[in-house]
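Researcher: Structure prediction, please.
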Amino acid sequence: MKTAITALVGIEHPIVQTGMGWVAGPRLVSATAEAGGLGILASATMTLDELEAAIKETRGRTTRPFGVNLRADASDAAQRVDLLIRENVRVASFALAPSRELIARLKDHGIVVIPSVGAARHAEKVAAWGADAVIVQGGEGGGHTGGVATTLLLPSVLDAVDIPVVAAGGFFDGRGLAAALAYGAAGIAMGTRFLLTRESTVPDAVKRLYLEHGLNGTVVTRKVDGLPHRVLRTSLVDALEGAGPVSGFARAAHNAVRFRRLTGLSWRSLARDGLSLQRSGDRTWSQVLMAANTPMLLRAGLVDGDTDAGVLASGQVVGLLEDLPAVGELIEAVTADAARILHRLGNL
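Model: Predicted structure follows.
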């Protein structure tokens, strides 16, 4: 199944595994690459040295193309870009829009730049700056998300830009891939579906908890880090929703200390990252102060398996998932089902 995104990146199937923090490591990314999709390493929760080690481990597991998700606002973003260039990584993806200069530097070295966007105007901006493609996530998606459904957001972005568009938010099977291609997208990106595979390093008990949730089993909350965040409904999330701002800031301060110890970052680096977030206009000071909650609360649930102390990012699609396939089985089933659907539609 060849589309604009498979030709651009050099993959077999128009399926992207998103860069989920604490989840998208070398094992999952390499499995996706070996199955013919585009796996993306999540680097926001890694130090620069850890990212270098993860890239080398991934390359040791596969010779196929893969990507790395970067924080454009990180204080060491330039060094991370240099690392991708040295290691000849195929794709750089971004959760926040990278600068025109970062895009140009990556493209000058043959790296494909694919930012994630949540609005048509954001897609227009990065396309004008030279982005090669965009991933557009509708409100059904997990983690940080917007309020517009994929069925409306996707066509608005497709109408706004002439670069390949990958659809995310609510996709999990061949019907979704066929529908996205019918809209005009070049492929789909999935997070929760890949989180719930055998190669995902999320603890098995946590995976089983995900599978117990129905279509109403997620909630969008601002109590994690001040931004809309779609997560599983748990007792901790209910407690966060009922907490006041004072306790929220106290928890964030505590998590900032824990995050600094875990990553080895200096207080100066953390402060510089916070100032960058605030000056970019993406977050208020209140949201900047709460930002440390995200990596630590997600780590507690997705790495340590402590669902009483952690939050679990999840798309609404979790309510339709019932199994834990191998990544290769998943990609084969999605593409085969999509091909059958498209063939049937072509005969109408």
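Model: Residues 166 and 293 are 29 Å apart (CA to CA).
Researcher: Thanks, that helps.
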